[in-house]
Amino acid sequence: MQREVSKPVLAMAIIVMTIVAVATIRPSEVRGADEKYQLVENWAQLPPGMQWGVMSAVDIDSHGTIYAFKRSEPGQKAGEMSSMVMVIDPNGKFLRSWGEHMFMSAHGLRVLRDGFIWITDKTGDQVFKFSPDGELLMTLGKKGVAGDNDSTDALNGPSDVVIGKNGDIFVSDGESTNTRVVKFTKDGKFIKCWGTKGAGPGELNLPHNIAMDSEGRLYVADRTNKRIQVFDQDGKYLDQMTQFGAPAAIFITKDDLLYVVAGAPENRLTIGTKDGKVLDRVEGLNAPHWVAVDSNGSVYIAEVAGQALLKFVKKE
């Protein structure tokens, strides 16, 4: 004889089954959900024993090769950093790694217009220029020497770097007490700096990232002020945008689309135009720290708390 299940018991069973089902979904399957973009599961084939960790940055060269910057292994504490650059081909095949244990605290990585890899070490107070294979070619700043906001030869928490068409180097120097952008010649000689701490036009509070559009204008992620500020290459204030949240990183495509990731409380990617129009958003990220876009429009996001390098593609 079949036993009848009471409605309250049946309802409770359904609730429990739902909770269990949700709990067994992997985090990467529930974050980053969006109508227009989908997360690519297991897109990279890492060697046995290697895993994503605290992922600080990512960028892509002209051949589609991906350079992922790992700050530390999962669970490592401050002072135990084991940074490395992980090099992956466009199909997700792991190629090589370099820079193991070289950086005090991995922060930014850019593959710039000169084809070289530029890295910022926020705790070591230095900026490095490398060949794609990891040969050190240039260093800005002095290891462990923290310059003040007017220093001409020392940095203090450099966060990111970009170069102009003539080779001039621009560094956002603000992961510590400095609140400025520093301009150098292509040979690394100091030219000028700008930015004082504050919330007014041209003032900065945690300049976390810097990018350049097709016209050569500089976009600075003024993170604590929850805005992007736009400057010319001499430091003249031009504009600001507040619709991207508290920006952690900015990537600008050749056709001047802005991809901006913001950490808490937004934890999202916002895609917009350089005049500030918002086109799309991807929500549900976990402390996104850096973003890059390849020639096919695939989006790569380095997560710190999420300890992953995510890949998103547009849904067909």
Explain this structure to me?
- With 316 residues, this protein is mainly β.
- The protein has a single domain (35-314), classed as Neuraminidase.
- Helix content is 7%, strand content 41%.
- The protein has helices spanning 7-24, 27-30, and strands at 37-39, 54-60, 66-72, 84-88, 94-98, 106-111, 117-121, 126-130, 136-140, 158-163, 169-173, 180-184, 190-194, 207-212, 218-222, 227-231, 237-241, 247-252, 257-262, 268-273, 278-282, 288-293, 299-303, 308-314.
- The protein has a four-stranded antiparallel β-sheet, with no helix packed on it. Strands 2-3-4-5 form a four-stranded antiparallel β-sheet, with no helix packed on it.
List the helices and strands and how they pair.
Layout: H1 7-24, H2 27-30, E1 37-39, E2 54-60, E3 66-72, E4 84-88, E5 94-98, E6 106-111, E7 117-121, E8 126-130, E9 136-140, E10 158-163, E11 169-173, E12 180-184, E13 190-194, E14 207-212, E15 218-222, E16 227-231, E17 237-241, E18 247-252, E19 257-262, E20 268-273, E21 278-282, E22 288-293, E23 299-303, E24 308-314
Antiparallel strand pairs: 1-24, 2-3, 3-4, 4-5, 6-7, 7-8, 8-9, 10-11, 11-12, 12-13, 14-15, 15-16, 16-17, 18-19, 19-20, 20-21, 22-23, 23-24
Structure at a glance:
With 316 residues, the protein is mainly beta. The protein contains two helices and 24 strands.
